[in-house]
Design a protein that fits this description.
Blueprint lengths: L1 H5 L3 H16 L3 H14 L3 H17 L3 H7 L6 H17 L3 H18 L4 H13 L3
Length: 136
C-alpha cells in the first residue's frame, strides 16, 4: 500500500526494505526478493538503492542464483558500502567454487574495513575468518 500510494518516495523505499527484512526472516524469499527489486530499481534515495541491491544479492545467494547475485554486486558501490559488497561478493564467489577470486574479494573487504578504523573491527574479523577458511 505504501509503495502504491507514495511511489518512489524514501518512505516507500524504507517500507519495502522493512517488509523484505520481515519476509526474509520468515523464509519468504520470493516476496523479499520482489520488495528488494522494487527498492533497488525504483527507490528515490541512492544509498537505500545500494542497500536494497546488497540485500537482494544476499537473497539471490540464498536462492542459489549465484550469477544473478554476482551481477547485482558488479556496479561499484559508494565507499560506505564497499566493504559489505566485497564481503558478499566473496561469499558468492566461494559458493561458485572460485576460491582465489573469493580470497581477493575478502581481502578487499578487510582492506576497506581496516581503513574504516575501530568502528569496523567486528565485521573485519568475520571477513578475516572467511578468508582464512579458504586457505592460502
Amino acid at each position: 500500500r505504501l509503495v502504491g500510494e507514495h511511489g518512489g518516495s524514501v518512505s516507500a523505499q524504507l517500507g519495502a526494505l522493512l517488509s523484505a527484512a520481515m519476509q526474509f526472516e520468515a523464509g519468504d524469499l520470493v516476496n523479499a526478493r520482489a520488495q528488494l527489486e522494487w527498492a533497488a530499481e525504483k527507490g528515490s534515495d541512492p544509498a537505500l538503492r545500494e542497500l536494497a541491491r546488497l540485500r537482494l544479492a544476499a537473497v539471490l545467494l540464498q536462492q542459489g542464483e549465484l550469477d544473478a547475485a554476482l551481477a547485482r554486486l558488479q556496479a561499484a558501490p559508494s565507499a560506505a558500502y564497499k566493504a559489505r559488497f566485497d564481503d558478499l561478493r566473496g561469499d558468492v564467489l566461494a559458493a561458485q567454487g572460485k576460491a582465489a577470486e573469493a580470497r581477493a574479494a575478502y581481502q578487499a573487504a578487510i582492506d576497506a574495513l581496516t581503513a574504516a578504523g575501530d568502528d569496523a573491527v567486528t565485521l573485519r574479523e568475520v571477513v578475516r575468518v572467511k578468508l582464512e577458511s579458504l586457505g592460502a
